[in-house]
Amino acid sequence: MEAQIDEILRKNQLSVTGSRKRILELFLASNGALAHGDIEKKTGEKFDRVTVYRTLQTFLEKGIIHTIPTPDNSVLYALCKDNCTEGHHHDNHVHFICRECGKTICLADITIPEVKLPGGFLPHEYQMIVTGLCKECR
Amino acid sequence: MEAQIDEILRKNQLSVTGSRKRILELFLASNGALAHGDIEKKTGEKFDRVTVYRTLQTFLEKGIIHTIPTPDNSVLYALCKDNCTEGHHHDNHVHFICRECGKTICLADITIPEVKLPGGFLPHEYQMIVTGLCKECR
DNA sequence: CAAACGCATGCAACTTTGTTGCAAAATGAT
DNA sequence: ATCATTTTGCAACAAAGTTGCATGCGTTTG
């Protein structure tokens, strides 16, 4: 894992620092999405709030992670797949949020179906969120 | 419109008060979605911030409005269709958010296409957001 | 239509969340 | 090891959202 983390950072021309390693580690460990609060709690002892904000911001810009809008308007972040590049994301898969345990899962295999928009609308990015119960909670 | 507003409130067993009337009026006038900030600005003189929060909260609980998650994680609210009831919403239409003017439009005619979820997941609610350029801004 | 009850509002204080500027420390290149 | 650059932590601040309580308004009842 250590090596994987280093590679991700190097590939994105980011210096390898403690907070970046730790936060990436968290993302790799949980194969779901993390709220800012989650990250802050798990790193709170070691890193400043501000550092967490800035690290996430950096990862977003580099396309390492992406945000997931949720119905209750909390902020969630998740790792992007390899083919995400700076500026343009290719994470158009469906996100599932469990009502019970609150966990957010990237359904990487499920691509968002096409929809026909009324004339005049020029679509750019699609997001789809499904809420319900996950395997464990049903 | 006055009558329509009264009816909505009565139907939901809510007392007819100034702030509720005004906020409903705003929703009816803009046939898109409103951010909390929008509402606060347009009513700021007359009502307290706290009242706006509580009014929106009440409307949410009664199923008069629903929230729309946006890619930049701001909070948007929009009127529900008539058949929304307390607890269970039926607003599964697509929402379009314009990158340019920021306006959010309910594409009430476009229903969210079905997706097959991996085994074990029990879906409850679907949300779909498309960002891009609207008719005016393209 | 008046009185009384209960709910909604405004205010103040507070918590949480996110941002900015700057000095100190850590990182990577030489 | 040294130096330039980037990252971090701190402090202070700004914005967003919450809570408790006293007052006032809307609704109901007689």
UniProtKB/TrEMBL annotation, chains A, B:
<keyword id="KW-0408">Iron</keyword>
<feature type="binding site">
    <location>
        <position position="98"/>
    </location>
    <ligand>
        <name>Zn(2+)</name>
    </ligand>
</feature>
<dbReference type="GO" id="GO:0003700">
    <property type="term" value="F:DNA-binding transcription factor activity"/>
</dbReference>
<protein>
    <submittedName>
        <fullName>Fur family transcriptional regulator</fullName>
    </submittedName>
</protein>
<keyword id="KW-0804">Transcription</keyword>
<keyword id="KW-0678">Repressor</keyword>
<dbReference type="GO" id="GO:0000976">
    <property type="term" value="F:transcription cis-regulatory region binding"/>
</dbReference>
<feature type="binding site">
    <location>
        <position position="91"/>
    </location>
    <ligand>
        <name>Fe cation</name>
    </ligand>
</feature>
<keyword id="KW-0805">Transcription regulation</keyword>
<keyword id="KW-0479">Metal-binding</keyword>
<dbReference type="InterPro" id="IPR036390">
    <property type="entry name" value="WH_DNA-bd_sf"/>
</dbReference>
<feature type="binding site">
    <location>
        <position position="101"/>
    </location>
    <ligand>
        <name>Zn(2+)</name>
    </ligand>
</feature>
<dbReference type="GO" id="GO:1900376">
    <property type="term" value="P:regulation of secondary metabolite biosynthetic process"/>
</dbReference>
<feature type="binding site">
    <location>
        <position position="137"/>
    </location>
    <ligand>
        <name>Zn(2+)</name>
    </ligand>
</feature>
<dbReference type="GO" id="GO:0045892">
    <property type="term" value="P:negative regulation of DNA-templated transcription"/>
</dbReference>
<dbReference type="Pfam" id="PF01475">
    <property type="entry name" value="FUR"/>
</dbReference>
<dbReference type="InterPro" id="IPR036388">
    <property type="entry name" value="WH-like_DNA-bd_sf"/>
</dbReference>
<keyword id="KW-0862">Zinc</keyword>
<dbReference type="GO" id="GO:0008270">
    <property type="term" value="F:zinc ion binding"/>
</dbReference>
<dbReference type="InterPro" id="IPR002481">
    <property type="entry name" value="FUR"/>
</dbReference>
<dbReference type="InterPro" id="IPR043135">
    <property type="entry name" value="Fur_C"/>
</dbReference>
<comment type="similarity">
    <text>Belongs to the Fur family.</text>
</comment>
<feature type="binding site">
    <location>
        <position position="89"/>
    </location>
    <ligand>
        <name>Fe cation</name>
    </ligand>
</feature>
<keyword id="KW-0238">DNA-binding</keyword>
<feature type="binding site">
    <location>
        <position position="134"/>
    </location>
    <ligand>
        <name>Zn(2+)</name>
    </ligand>
</feature>
